[in-house]
Design brief:
Low-confidence stretches: none
Distance between the termini: 11 Å
Radius of gyration: 15 Å
Oligomer: single chain
Helix content: 40-55%
CATH class: Alpha Beta
Structural class: alpha/beta
Number of strands: 5
Amino acid sequence: MSNTEQVVTILGDSLTAGYGLKPAESLPRQLAARLATETPPVRVIGAGVSGDTTTDGLRRLDRDVPGQTDLCVVALGANDMMQLVPADRVRDTLLSIIDKLRRRHIPVLLSGMRAPPWFGAYAWAFDEVYPEVARTANVPLMPFLMEGVALYPAYVLPDRIHPNAVGVGKMADALAPHVRSALVALRTR
């Protein structure tokens, strides 16, 4: 880890890419603003692609996560959930992503996703994936990236799925302490 700058890359989908928003309203930019006073300084790189599943993220990881990344926030799975990809496949792919990043000596912060309750038994299986992956891979977990945002009309775009700029701000507020803690833990190990 560099003393001059810490690089955080967010490997994600439309929730992190800023779907329907101005670039300055995207999660990477809003997270960077929340971390602007850190020492050493933090640079946030957005590697979110709208529509990506965990499999897509695994496929493009080497291309989109720079080698100088000090911490990779893995924020994938919402599209898997929308497509009802089997929970065990989502789990295995997330573990493969973490393993591939580890082989590149890039630590991970896993950002969880939850299925809406009307997904029934699938929601129960899917919601177990992120805590299980975090335990198995021994990585820190932010339990739910969209906590307090998902299903709240004031914080989402008219599609009722993607966060609006205010919703992304709430996500950045919630994610920042997890990123800060992970970076501190990396500096002290």
